[in-house]
Amino acid sequence: MKIRLQGRVFGCIFFLLFAIIACNSPKPADFELRFNSADKKYLSGKELIVEVSSEYADKISAVKLFLNEKLVATGTANSVKAKIEETKLGYIDLRVAVTVDGADISVSDRVELVTDVTPKVYSYTILNTYPHDISSFTEGFEFFRDTLLEGTGLRGQSKLLKTDYKTGKILKSLTLDSQYFGEGITVINNQIFQLTWEEGKGFIYDANSWKLIKEFTYDKQIEGWGMTNDGSYIYHSDGTEKIWKMDPNTQKMVGYVNVYLGSEKIKQVNELEWVEGKIYGNVWQKDAIAIINPESGVVEGILDLSALRSKVKGGNPAPEVLNGIAYRKSTKTLFVTGKYWDKVFEIQVK
Questions:
Q1: Alpha-carbon span 76 to 99, nearest angstrom
Q2: What is the mean pLDDT of the segment spanning 117-140?
Q3: Which UniProt keywords apply (predicted)?
Q4: Residue 146 and residue 330: Cα distance in Å, rounded?
């Protein structure tokens, strides 16, 4: 009995000693990361300096800096620095691994890669004004064989339309099932792609017959907003600052860019149009077009179209935001409209 009791006592003592040592061992919460940029925003190519602050600072024997889990710098003091080589705008996952008394401890944070590009402000001239169906809640707008295609939204009212842009006459119409809220459209490989908003589903039609070829499910948990293509890939906005790049053959997302105007994200990028190597994008609730570099996401230009509002007549329902950009390659002009607008404006950007 006495031996068994002594064993229990020694066991308790060992447990208490282990608990005391564990409590005194450094933990990630004991380390604070301080940056040479107070808001943790950086430009590509600039130097990032991270200082590790802790009561264990004098015991740190090594520091490693990881960006997006790639080792970019090492140090032996309580700070480390590296030149930011990343080019994709947006958040970069950051991890600092410190070695204290032979033990490795990781502290995580993130920094944001922004741009210092000042966008050029473009002006325009109205060349022509054409009629537009005021019942159309415009979501997609694109020329195909010099005929205007339009995708409209709202559940129970969503359609795919083929229109004579000069007269506004609807030449062909396809109505979506009432459960779907239609969104952006684009034509590639002789196929019409159409997105839906919250349903996570898209449709592919034969561009000649409009026969449904396929329904597809988004391979990301995102919404469907705007759509355009560069002849090889589709670009798909989702209501955030992201524009996704989609393989039209597999409907899989193969990349994305984050849209930035200076140091700020531009969210709710909506209807899209590919124009001479750039993406022209409407921004929800803004009567302006952002001209976006598709490789970097940088807004390189702004086209303010707010003056068009005064030229649109009120109806029932009342005209809503600008949302519709179609580029006519033969004339190198833009055709723009909005939700419930009674007009389409052909403009020359200058």
A1: 9
A2: 95
A3: Transferase
A4: 8
User: How many angstroms separate the Cα of 149 from the Cα of each of 76, 120, 121, 155, 180?
Assistant: 62, 30, 28, 19, 19
pLDDT attached to residue 81: 92
Core vs surface per residue 318-346: b (16+ CB within 10 A) or e: ebebbbbbbbeeeeebbbbbbbbbbbbbb
The dihedral over CA atoms of 195, 176, 323, 90, expressed in degrees to the nearest 10, equals -20
DSSP code for 59: G
What single-letter DSSP state applies at residue 154?
A: S
- Of 163, 141, 164, 166, nearest in space to 151 by CA: 141
Domain ranges of the chain: 29-114, 120-349
The pLDDT tens digits of the residues spanning 46-76 come to: 999 999 999 888 889 899 999 999 999 998 7
CA 5, CA 137: separation in Å to the nearest integer? 82
For residues 40, 46, 47 and 49, what is the CA-based torsion angle, rounded to 10 degrees?
A: 0
Q: What is the pLDDT of residues 273-307, one digit of tens each?
A: 999 999 999 998 888 999 999 999 999 999 999 99
Q: Which CATH number fits domain 120-349: 3.40.50.300, 3.40.630.30, 3.40.50.150, 2.120.10.30?
A: 2.120.10.30
CATH of 29-114, one of 2.60.40.10, 3.40.50.410, 3.40.1390.10, 3.30.1330.30: 2.60.40.10
| Residue indicated by tokens 């004579």 | 164
